[in-house]
Design goal:
The structure is a single chain. The protein is mainly α. 45% of the residues lie in helices and 10% in strands. The chain has a three-stranded parallel beta sheet with strand order 1-2-3, sandwiched between helices. Strand 2, helix 4 and strand 3 form a beta-alpha-beta unit. The two termini are 20 Å apart.
């Protein structure tokens, strides 16, 4: 959806409802911040967790929200990291909410194919920032 259309707000509402209605705890991650978290595991002197520990945590949460997918720098490492996460949740049929302001066709094919499965809903709307 377009910038300011309420994607993040809606994703947070889904996460909140999952907890309030169903008692399911989830996690909200801006993709850039999640990638920073993964990168922090690469420095053995300062790392406080491993990639595997992050993956287990994200695999165990009932609902995962990835905010702003597609805005990150597209290196092969980033593409592989995100693919592994999306594929894991897809394969295990775990709920995931993804927001993005890039076209679905602009996402890497391996990620896009999982999102085109028919299990995905799509929301788009006008910029609501500043609207009264």
């Amino acid at each position: 959806g377009t910038v300011g259309s309420g994607k993040t707000h809606l994703a947070c509402a889904v996460l909140r409802a999952a907890f309030e209605v169903h008692g399911k705890r989830g996690q909200f991650w801006p993709v850039a911040a999640l990638l920073d978290r993964y990168r922090a595991t690469m420095n053995a002197d300062t790392a406080t967790e491993t990639i595997e520990e992050i993956d287990v945590q994200l695999r165990r949460c009932a609902v995962l929200v990835l905010d702003d997918l597609g805005t990150e720098y597209g290196t092969p490492w980033v593409a592989e990291r995100l693919y592994r996460l999306v594929n894991e949740r897809y394969s295990e049929e775990l709920p995931m909410v993804v927001t993005s302001n890039v076209a679905l066709d602009a996402l890497p094919e391996r990620i896009r194919s999982r999102m085109k499965d028919g299990l995905m809903g799509y929301f788009d709307g006008p910029d609501m920032r500043g609207a009264k």
